[in-house]
Amino acid sequence: MDLLSNLALGFGVAFTLQNLFYAFFGAVLGTLIGVLPGLGPVATIAMLLPSIYALDATPALIMLAGIYYGAQYGGSTTAILINVPGESSSVVTAIDGYQMARKGRAGPALAAAGLGSFFAGCVGTIIIAAFAPPLTELAFKFGPAEYFSLMVLGLIGAVVLASGSLIKAIGMILLGLLLGQINTDVISGVPRFSFDIPELTDGIGFVAIAMGVFGFGEIIANLSRPAEHREVFTKDVKGLWPTRQDFKDAWPAVVRGTALGSILGVLPGGGALLSSFAAYTVEKKVRGRADEVPFGQGNIRGVAGPEAANNAGAQTSFIPMLTLGIPPNAVMALMVGAMTIKGIQPGPQVMTSNPELFWGLIASMWVGNAMLIVLNLPLIGVWIKLLTVPYRFLFPAIMAFCCIGLYTLNNNNFDVYMAAGFGVVGYLFYKLGCEPAPLLLGFILGPMMEENLRRALLLSRGDWSTFVTKPLSAGLLIAAVLMVVLVSLPTIKNKREVAFKEED
Amino acid sequence: MKIKSQKDFWSGLMFVVAGLGFAAGATNYTFGTSARPGPGYFPFGLGILLALLGALVLFKSLSVEADRGDPVGAIAWKPMGLIVLSVAVFGAVLPRLGLFLALPILICIASLAGDEFKLKEVVFNSVVLTLGSWAVFIKGLALVIPLWPAFMAG
């Protein structure tokens, strides 16, 4: 059988001492930088690119892949513990994960995230091995119109999970999309909204916005409240391990998240990110136990589902990269760069011309995931100890790490100033009851959305109906409209408001 | 006209201003046509959309009764000012004075924003965090950050 012999070849490559070492090294490094807010995998991989000249192609890519999923995992850890998503795809994890941590259930949240990710990673690996060729054909069917509609659907999904007013959430998305417009126009090369500041022609850094709004804004909001009302954690930590009930609640969510993530991850353009948002939306729609904790207040399904989805998505997003040579995100773009450094032309021929690289990489993903779980489950106790540190020690530490991370992004102080500004903006959002998560998603998807919109219009000669006449695109848009209608229905609206009610 | 929801009123205003601002800025760039959209096409459309949405939020804030007027509440100027100041100062002094001075400065200013400021604790915090950052970022990750003031290193 093809699949088995391919996997056997892959594991043969992955289980050499050298490759095991690089997978482990990558996973450790990835977790470390993921836990440190602000120092993302992109920066780290970029820093390490020169050093891979010395390595062979296979160990080099295995190590980079390890950094990628290690950082994904570490990013969730900070999302849960201090509400700073280390990675864009863990923005959703922060919603319920942080609430769980505040209630003394950081252990179960971290364990659910870890075990969910591991399960998703295993499934993702098998899916890549089995479906890489046919799934590639599906991705071929996506033109710019379909991408645009898919992103509309993704953004609407984000609205559904914002707390508070629906219109304000849509407003935040639009604001995010507009902030994403501060860049150099990809098609004409015109710098936009840069006010002649050279740093702005590359766009505002995602990290600067995330740290400013979520990190600094949150710190200001916390400090403005009297100490006893502060949004920190209960001192009594109830168990490091999920209870039997937690497992029962979480595993269907993990399975659903894995399925969603595996499918959405294949689509170039934001696999892990979109799938975590979609999984959260789905979990909210699925009826749970009658007495379960509402979403937004620390529901374990809200952690397990998106975590599984983003890990599955992270795995399957290798498919377009490995088979088409299209990088679906910045990390993959660097991986493509690394392949070219090693003289391998990314594209459909990699599977046949470098089978040991292709299958070795896939097998090493499973190995890396297994290493992560072994590495991280014992560390949960250590992470939880971090929470018992008083806030007056904690917030300067968060600020120190954030500031260093910001500075090292581009090795200049511009991002530091930007984040300081966005700290004020974040506090303003907090004061006005505007949820910042949709803003961030809009910001990330903005440039891609514009590019696809303009390409679709170019192709259709300015005919907007192209979005509804193409069946795939129409289907995605209909799904988006249905979501808005569902959420605005009076009965659901009331439930949603109850679910998001702040407990202050 | 009575404002029925303070929060919505100000967020609506924010959306309108931001939307119009971006739309106005977009007029500096070629708009193009639908068949050949220029660099101003997308931001202009988005800006107008945001302004309209903001107007809707404004309208709602003046017409729909909200819970006790939904007040915005007092603005915490002190923490906000100090936190932002500490970050900005850090950005300004790091390239000149280096990490070993910039980090304690950041931590001291930021700690003033808290409601319990104990000098001993802040000094302890500064030392631990500075050494920790040095170990992790400089030794561990080999990041290139200036460590000492420029005149000493030179």
Describe this entry's structure for a reader.
The complex is a heterodimer of chains A (504) and B (154). Chain A has helices at residues 2-14, 17-35, 41-48, 57-82, 91-102, 106-140, 144-160, 166-179, 206-224, 244-266, 271-285, 301-316, 318-324, 330-341, 350-353, 355-376, 380-387, 391-410, 414-432, 437-459, 466-469, 471-488, 490-500. Chain A has 504 residues and is mainly alpha-helical. Chain A has one domain. The radius of gyration of chain A is 22 Å and the shape is globular. Chain A starts with a helix and ends with a helix. The model of chain A is unreliable at 499-504 (pLDDT under 50). With 154 residues, chain B is an all-alpha fold. The longest helix of chain B has 23 residues, at 41-63. Chain B starts with 5 loop residues before the first helix and ends with a helix. In chain B, helix 1 runs antiparallel to helix 2 and helix 3 packs antiparallel against helix 4. Helix content of chain B is 68%, strand content 0%. Chains A and B meet through helix 8, helix 9, helix 18, helix 19 and helix 20 of A and helix 1, helix 2, helix 3, helix 4 and helix 5 of B.
